[in-house]
Amino acid sequence: MKKILMLLLSTTLLVSCGGDGKKEEKKDNSIKLNTQAEPKEEKEDGVTRVYLTGSDQMKFNKNEIVVNAGDKVVLTFEHVGKMSKETMGHNFVLLKKGTNVQEFGQEALEYKDNDYIPEDTNAIITHTKMLGGGEKTEITFEAPEKGNYDYICSFPGHVALMNGILVVK
Ligand SMILES: [Cu+2]
After folding, report:
1. How far is the CA of 49 from the centre of ligand 1 (A)?
2. Over the Cα atoms of the chain, what is R_g?
3. Is the pLDDT of residue 24 over 90?
4. Nearest CA to 90 among 72, 77, 106?
5. Strand partners, 98
6. What dotted CATH number matches 41-168?
7. For labeling, which of 38, 93, 131, 159 is most exposed (least CB within 10 Å)?
8. Domain range annotation of the chain
9. pLDDT level of residue 146 (50, 70, 90 thresholds)
10. How many angstroms separate the alpha carbon of residue 30 from the centre of ligand 1?
């Protein structure tokens, strides 16, 4: 007898939840958020504009950027978190083909005074400065020849999570 009562109760609860319109609203919001999280590259007449962010969660907003060979790439890089440059600094470092990403990350550790950019290296195509929370910078570079290029954040310990591929078509 008790079991039947419980069943009846839970059925009533389910029905009342289903009738609530709030569930639908939540779904809409999450779809909008996902779209905002990964804006597409904007292309126009040989110029590609890229918006890349780094967060307090130690993540880039995109792990793949697609450009055309020879394009002028205007990359805006923003630290959308709140943490300081000393504890959660982020940069964008584009590496030449064939660079061992893990080894490069190790080498970068030794260059704290240079914002973790190794000096006397020929492994870097281009890079931004190191940013703290709320900061923003912009660099312009010419897309290299066709192929896949690794990009990373060279702050200590970040390369494992903060890496992506620049695909040049
Ligand atoms: Cu970082």
Report:
1. 21
2. 23
3. no
4. 77
5. none
6. 2.60.40.420
7. 38
8. 2-33, 41-168
9. very high
10. 26
